[in-house]
Amino acid sequence: MGAYRTVLVGTDGSDTSLHAVDRAGGLAAESGAKLIIATGYLTHEDDTRAADVLKDEGYMVRGKAPIYANLRRARVRAAAAGATDIEERSIEGAPVQALVNLAEEVHADLLVVGDVGLHARRAILARLFTVPGAVAIRAKSDVLIVHTSD
């Protein structure tokens, strides 16, 4: 396989998702690839579900205001990891489908996500419905799930 040309990484601004940004930035630098950093936001109707799922971090994906801070913070981290060609994107909607759709739109060779949610103490089947698991199943590009917790 040749070098990646377009790397897409999803972040919600959390410390763990920024580990995925670090890794994606390094991979983009090594490949000379464009790095697209995406962060999502939910519509008003999805706010209640976000609060239920994300608990204390639910504020990070509500409305549009936090996305700009998340993207700025992620850009700094990616640049520190060596990425030079960086684009920021905000995406509306559920993270899995929004990331998969964006990956197809930008012809990403690699989609990078963190592993939060994969280590829940549930049956294997439940793991398929986490953001990283569902992205891995639906994406048409390579997917890297970065180990983000100690």
Care to describe what's here?
The protein is α/β, with parallel strands linked by helices. The protein is built from six helices and five strands. It has helices at residues 15-31, 47-54, 65-80, 95-105, 124-127, 131-138; strands spanning 6-10, 34-41, 86-92, 110-114, 142-146. Helix 1 (15-31) links the parallel strand 1 (6-10) and strand 2. Helix 1 (15-31) crosses helix 3 (65-80). The radius of gyration is 14 Å and the shape is globular.
Protein topology:
Elements lengths: L5 E5 L4 H17 L2 E8 L5 H8 L10 H16 L5 E7 L2 H11 L4 E5 L9 H4 L3 H8 L3 E5 L4
Parallel strand pairs: 1-2, 1-4, 2-3, 4-5
Low-confidence stretches: 118-128
> Hey, roughly how much beta strand do the residues contain?
15-25%
Shape call: globular
Oligomer: single chain
Sheet bearing the most strands, described?
Answer: 5 strands, parallel
Helix content: 40-55%
Radius of gyration: 14 Å
Spell the H/E element sequence. Answer: EHEHHEHEHHE
Question: Mean pLDDT, rounded to whole units?
Answer: 79
Strand count: 5
Strand order of the largest sheet: 3-2-1-4-5
**What's the number of helices?**
6
Distance between the termini: 30 Å
Structural class: alpha/beta
